[in-house]
Amino acid sequence: MAEESDLEKTEAPSPRRLEQAREEGQVPQSRELSTFLVTMTGAASLWMMGDWMATRMLALVRHAFAFEREVAFDHVLMLDALRGQLEGALFMLTPLFVVLLVAAVAAPILLGGLVFAPKALGPNFGRLNPMQGIGRMFSLHGLVEMVKAILKSLLVGGVAAAVLWNNKDHLFDLMVEPLEVGMPDFANTVAFAALLIVSSLGLLALIDVPFQLWQYHSKLRMTKDEVRRESKEQEGDPQIKGRIRAMQREMARRRMMAQVPKADVVVTNPTHFAVALKYDADRMGAPVVVAKGRGELALKIREIAGESDVPLLEAPPLARALYAHCELDAAIPAALYTAVAEVMAYVYQLDAWAAGGGLPPQVPTNLPVPEDMDPGSPDE
Q1: How far apart are the first and last CA of the chain?
Q2: Which of 24, 181, 353, 358 has the fewest beta carbons under 10 Å from its own?
Q3: Is the peptide bond before 178 cis (omega within 30 degrees of 0)?
Q4: Is the pLDDT of residue 4 over 50?
Q5: Gyration radius of the chain's alpha carbons
Q6: Mean pLDDT for the stretch of residues 76-101
Q7: Which of 257, 254, 256, 378 shows the shortest CA–CA distance to 319?
Q8: What integer is the mean pLDDT of 50-72?
Q9: In the 3-class helix/strand/coil scheme, how is the chain assigned residue by residue?
Q10: Any idea what the Cα angle at residue 280 is, between residues 279 and 281, rounded to 5°?
Q11: Which residues sit opposite 222 in a β-bridge?
């Protein structure tokens, strides 16, 4: 039962799965939404520009039937007249074509967003398989499309019949109106009827859009095994991740060890802890921890310090406090300023003694380390 549940697509698609689908050109699409927006935009444009278009159309018709006799017998002049009529018609229809183009492009973007998928442009010979085509015809999607087509026909046809029936007297009156009055009136009537008919498509769009979104996400649902594989691919193999972390730690340790020869002093426990300090009065407000370690790492720090002639100072409480409360490349806490100041003073005295001779400086003892800063016992 567990294996069967792992193979069932019960999990919502992951962001990566959705992104892959978009890269392949798979986005939610609604034909009803596109049809509604395009036709509604066209009807609204006719409604707003109906008078202007009717006036232009009337002028074109008049100009077409009012030409001189010699034009009818000269094919060159006839072609010029035809070209002029076509240019006038194109100029009249250009605003309508522009708004329809914008609506046709905006409809898919509203639902699926702007997508550029070169993979979708490649040939897909699987669509030529007749068996798959028959399967799509008798699938749930095909059944839904058939039901939508029937509903669309009934709804649009019913609304169109109702509009025509209610405006039948007005349509008959157009036959007796003068051309100057009848053309704008006819254009407004057609635009108003188109708006009513197209409004019925909005109901289908309201039903189809949620269904298409649900169907789109249902097709992309994943099995639990797919979710685990994707998570593993994104996070990486645990063994590889462990090796990467180990390499990162080793690189960080090497960088830290490279800073030990540049330190001013190494404070030790003497065997458990080692902390290397550096202070530059011109660039630092307080001494900075450049290296720290415990156990074998502390032994390695002391070894490098000895090879580099970096002074070693045995101060167990201070070493434990510095190790516990200081981060690498960070300044020491204010509570340890006094103790570290005595250490740095001792280092400067060592440098002066090494350069000028005389009596060696006295090693500082009983450094003032607050009890709450020392995490260890005195015998560590």
Answers
A1: 57
A2: 358
A3: no
A4: no
A5: 43
A6: 80
A7: 378
A8: 73
A9: CHHHHHHCCCECCCHHHHHHHHHCCCCCCCHHHHHHHHHHHHHHHHHHHHHHHHHHHHHHHHHHHCCCHHHHCCHHHHHHHHHHHHHHHHHHHHHHHHHHHHHHHHHHHHHHCCCCCHHHHCCCHHHHCHHHHHHHHCCHHHHHHHHHHHHHHHHHHHHHHHHHHHCHHHHHHHHHCCHHHHHHHHHHHHHHHHHHHHHHHHHHHHHHHHHHHHHHHHHCCECHHHHHHHHHHHHCCHHHHHHHHHHHHHHHHHHHHHHHHHCCEEEECCCCEEEEEECCCCCCCCCEEEEEEECHHHHHHHHHHHHCCCCEEECHHHHHHHHHHCCCCCECCHHHHHHHHHHHHHHHHHHHHHHHCCCCCCCCCCCCCCHHHCCCCCCC
A10: 110
A11: 11
Evaluate whether 78 touches 72 at the Cβ level (below 8 Å): yes
Distance CA 343, CA 365 (A): 10
Residue 149 has which token pair? 């087509």
- Region of 213 (left: φ > 0; alpha: ψ -120 to 50; beta: rest) is alpha
CA 307 to chain CA centroid, nearest Å: 54
d(CA 62, CA 52): 15
As given in the structure block, the two tokens for residue 82 are 């035809």
pLDDT band, very low/low/confident/very high, at 70 (cuts 50, 70, 90): confident
How many C-beta atoms surround the C-beta of residue 104 within 10 A?
A: 13
Measured CA to CA, the distance from residue 40 to residue 195 in angstroms comes to 7
Of 107, 142, 114, nearest in space to 36 by CA: 107
Spatial contact of 31 and 201, defined as CB atoms under 8 Å apart: no
Residues 6+ apart with CB under 8 A from 217: 12, 13
Name the burial class of residue 187, with classes exposed (0-12), middle (13-18) and buried (19+) by CB atoms within 10 angstroms of its CB: buried
